Amino acid sequence: MRRTVVTFDPPPGANVAQWPMALDIDMAFYFKPDAGRILASPADETPSPPTDVQPEEWDVAVAVDRLQRATTLTIEHITHKWAGLRSSFSDGLPAVGPDPDKPTFVWLAGQGGYGIRTAPAMARLAAALAIGADAPADITDFGLDAKTVAPGRLRVRARS
Fold it and tell me: Are residues 101 and 80 part of one domain?
């Protein structure tokens, strides 16, 4: 999935360093401070094959339009724009743990847009499962059952 991001300068005199990340309730856009500027995205998830992905002008325009309609921010100049690819599975969950057919291969993939925030916990879960240990208690205490993210759940089932 392609995700588009832009950065622009904040309003004159505004110190955005302590601003929180803000998301639209429908996840139609988000913005947050980033190195003295504001980073924004239309939260797009456009299907894309593996490629050297570039931002589409339409998606840049959508990001600007959504942000300006919902806030008092005015975007006069985009300082940077880029796009990246995010992998995900049909159920929106990552795959974490040994492959059911090749148990020496351990999956940690499909984190979509949550990889940065979940990487420490997902890496600890993958490491535990790779050595045949139980999922760490502090992770399961949050309600995550390792079976929920097990790669075997993604198998294509033959129809009878």
Answer: no
